[in-house]
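ok so I'm stuck.
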Amino acid sequence: MREKCGIFAAKTENAPKKAYYALIALQHRGQESAGISVWESMVKTLKGPGLVSEVFKGDKLSRLKSDLAIAHVRYSTSGSLNEAQPLEVSCCGKRLALAHNGTLTNFLPLRRHYERLGVRFSHSVDSELLGVSFLWHLKETGDEFEAMREVFNEVKGAYSVAFLFDGKLLVARDPVGFRPLSYGRGDGHYFASEDSALRLFVDEIRDVKPGEVFLVDDSVESKVLAEESHHHCVFEYIYFARPDSTLDGVNVYSARVRMGRELAKESPADGDVVIAVPDSGRAAALGFSQESGIPYSEGLIKNRYIGRTFITPGQFHRELKVRLKLSPVKEVVSGKSVVLVDDSIVRGTTMKRIVAMLKKAGAKEVHVRIASPPIKHPCYMGIDIPTRHELIAAFGGVEKVKSAIGADSLAYLSVGGLKKVVGKEGLCMACLTGEYPEWAFRF
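replied:
not stuck anymore, here's the structure
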């Protein structure tokens, strides 16, 4: 259950085709599988491994005809095609499809609870539990909102989720708002993990509030059923979200530029040129250049047909993709003191190889500046940082990391600086500080 995914839901004309285009816009959130479920008097699902364009190539999409659809792109380090989403879940005489972004922290004890009540699970992933909990309480209460209120009381962790059942959509964001979720209205009703996917279709867009539930059938109704202190994932702003997305009122690109400016104030570098690790470090590198006055240039060229290394399972594949993915521009870096800016260092493999490539291309010095604090702790809310031993900064200080990656100097943005430039209260920064939100583990 180590996922980082993107979800979409809509009631609109040509919903499956719009779901397809929305998944393309959300492809950065997951590249291992994709799927779309529609309502055609019953749930019908098409899904498979690979990129969105691979899963729905040919005439596959034309098989889906409905004005109701949910969709999902998935990244996970475990599971099989059976676990690709949307998942179809049966319980209490009903069946639904669900698309989920997040991780449930009380999955195992709650699953055992339902197994003792006689529920038989069909999948190994935690997402199924959301569907089981909802259907169980729907049978008890007979009301979708009351059933979801019970889910909020019962299920802890991170979940933005869409259910498709009985010719209806139910879309919800957990009471803490860990994972992002936006709602758009125009020629229909649309929901997506990021508003950048909704701007394909509508202009009237807002964030779904923590603890808010939407029920869409012939009309749309929303209620805020539960709300705790907001703990939106800071890593969305640092790395995961698209730069053109706005999450809870904060534009991601602008936040990343501010991270770079603040980094230049906190940790200046004596360099001749500022370059970015593309694409993740580009906005912060521009901010660093603006604040420091050191000129910015494109010193690393990215092969855009290679996906993100951080979300590629397996160390061997990550290392191979670094070599395929980036190439230094010798004319930019040769004989110069280079300030290399990126958004984060996780395992250190990528940065070590980049520093080595730059020096081989003739860089006199490489000063690494990271536009986030050191990642020292695992995430239990949906990012693939399962154990501390994989984190290069978890044991030992900055000097140890500097030596490991071969840099001439290394500095990170401070926790205080990050909070200031994002400008949001109640961010979840557990992977940086080790301080986990209480609500997610109150069970």
